[in-house]
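pasting for the record
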Amino acid sequence: MGEKPRVLVVDDDAGIRETMADILALEGYDVTLAASGEEAVAIAQRERFDVALLDIRMPGMNGVEALKMIKGLDPTIRVIMITGFEVGTLLDEAMEAGAEAVFRKPLDVATFLPLLLATADPDALPE
């Protein structure tokens, strides 16, 4: 990819949003933050992203609802879900709606970053 991959990070926890922004910026990503599903959808209506990193459980619109709406706006966006909770049916629903993977919080950066790199650059994904 010639330009920096654009990542939308969505989490209701400000600490997690800021930590992810710092890590991703260091890795060369162009990062936009959203504190809710509603905010994420509003941003996705105005801007295009390569990858969305969505928390599954948030007040108001949950991550799965946001995933469906964002995928409706841009079917090519790649989505990774994150969760700190046991979410059962929401997890299944997220995968059915097009999520590429689900990671548990706290994120293991050594495991997470290689997948995000591959997700941001489809040419890096194995066939």
